Automatic annotation (TrEMBL):
InterPro entries to which the protein is assigned, alphabetical: ClpP/crotonase-like_dom_sf, ECH_dom, HIBYL-CoA-H
Domain Enoyl-CoA hydratase/isomerase positions: 23-355
SUPFAM superfamilies: ClpP/crotonase
Keywords (A to Z) from UniProt: Hydrolase
Pfam hit, one: ECH_2
Protein name per UniProt: Enoyl-CoA hydratase/isomerase family protein
Organism: Pelomonas margarita
Length: 370
């Protein structure tokens, strides 16, 4: 059995176990809401690559470690404190993190065996990256899905430019620009989740996956499906999503929301956007619009270009991302000093510069993604 689990490097931040034909991966940083470190990314790649080649493993499931007495978290994203420190220090591990994380995202989307994401609790940013490519995405009442990157001066990466673009209408733009968290019913309605299992059934489900007989991939899936129920009704989606977020620019989106009169949803949404990075909202809107015509691999290559520019185009000292992380997670003053501070001041030429690759095609770090 031991040869089914390769050596791991994350010092217990990833736990791996095998039950019958099922390989289980547990993200084990509960104190950090199971946020991904570089070592965790490397361990997930090692496990998935190893198990893809082993006929004994027919399916893989990934879940987040629980937090005693606290709400669950599948994965709250990447380790943003590390990103902040690495950017300021000029640490090459910063570039390695994004290259290897995006490779992991692509591996999951193209995995040759059923990959199942058990998305109980918080699923944000990098957590969406390791779940949206799953063959089966399982949600609960506690599931909260979001791509909140514009709030830290980033953009919805890890394939977000592609999978948000697949949402109906202009839901993708709304989720990408606002970072709004959605529940199970919303996620299933908009193609970001598949099935719903009530919270009360999760302990028995996990026990069966870990210790019950699992002779085949079909049996693994049946173990989950026998506990599936109808998801709660999606909340009444604001009828204005398509009207407002179908506008051609961020400025036009804001103007449309501002003209919505006494619409409380429009007013709250307008206020939310005023707190986001103006520059990165413009980059984000362009990314999602392009994402509708890109393959996943091409989207990930574009995102790798964009994230390079997030840290290097202006240098770390003027990076919107470094500033956004500082305000949220380092100084925690929640008062980012965006440059520029207003949407009207965003320079179209600077936005366009984000979409110019710093690499020739043959030298791109993700050149070989199919």
């Amino acid at each position: 059995m031991n040869d089914l689990i390769p050596p791991l490097v994350s010092d217990g931040q990833i736990l791996a176990e095998v039950n019958g034909c099922l390989g289980l991966i547990t993200l084990n940083r509960p104190q950090a809401l199971n946020a991904l470190s570089l070592a965790m990314v490397r361990d997930m790649v090692a496990l998935l690559t190893h198990w893809a080649a082993r006929p004994e493993i027919q399916a893989v499931a990934v879940l987040g470690a629980g937090r005693e007495g606290k709400p669950p978290a599948f994965c709250a994203g990447g380790d943003i404190r590390f990103l902040h420190q690495a950017a300021l220090a000029g640490d090459p591990a910063l570039d390695a993190f994004f290259t290897e994380e995006y490779r992991l995202n692509h591996l999951i989307h193209t995995y040759p065996k059923p990959y199942i994401a058990l998305m109980d609790g918080i699923v944000m940013g990098g957590g969406m990256g390791i779940s949206q490519g799953a063959r089966l995405r399982v949600l609960s009442e506690a599931s909260r899905l979001a791509m909140p990157e514009t709030g830290i001066g980033l953009f919805p990466d890890v394939g977000g430019g592609w999978f948000l673009a697949q949402c109906p209408g202009h839901v993708g733009e709304w989720l990408a620009l606002t970072g709004e968290a959605i529940t199970a019913g919303d996620a299933i309605e908009w193609g970001l989740g598949d099935v719903f299992v009530r919270t009360e059934h999760w302990p028995a489900l996990l026990e069966e996956l870990r210790r019950g007989g699992q002779p085949s991939a079909e049996h693994v899936v049946a173990t989950i499906m026998e506990r599936v129920e109808l998801a709660p009704e999606p909340r009444a989606a604001a009828p204005g999503i398509d009207t407002h977020f179908g506008q051609p620019s961020v400025a036009a989106v804001l103007a449309s929301l501002a003209q919505a009169g006494d619409d409380d949803w429009a007013r709250r949404t307008h206020d939310t956007l005023l707190k986001r990075s103006p520059l990165m909202m413009a980059v984000t809107l362009e990314l999602v619009r392009r994402g509708r015509t890109l393959s996943l691999a091409d989207d990930l290559r574009l995102e790798r270009d964009l994230v390079h520019h997030c840290f290097h185009l202006r240098g770390a000292a003027r990076s919107e991302t470094v500033e956004g992380i500082r305000a949220l997670a380092v100084d925690k003053d929640h008062s980012p000093r965006w440059q520029p501070a207003r949407v009207a001041e965003v320079d179209a030429a600077e936005v366009a510069a984000f979409f110019v690759s710093p690499w020739a095609p043959a030298a791109h770090p993700l050149k070989d993604l199919a």
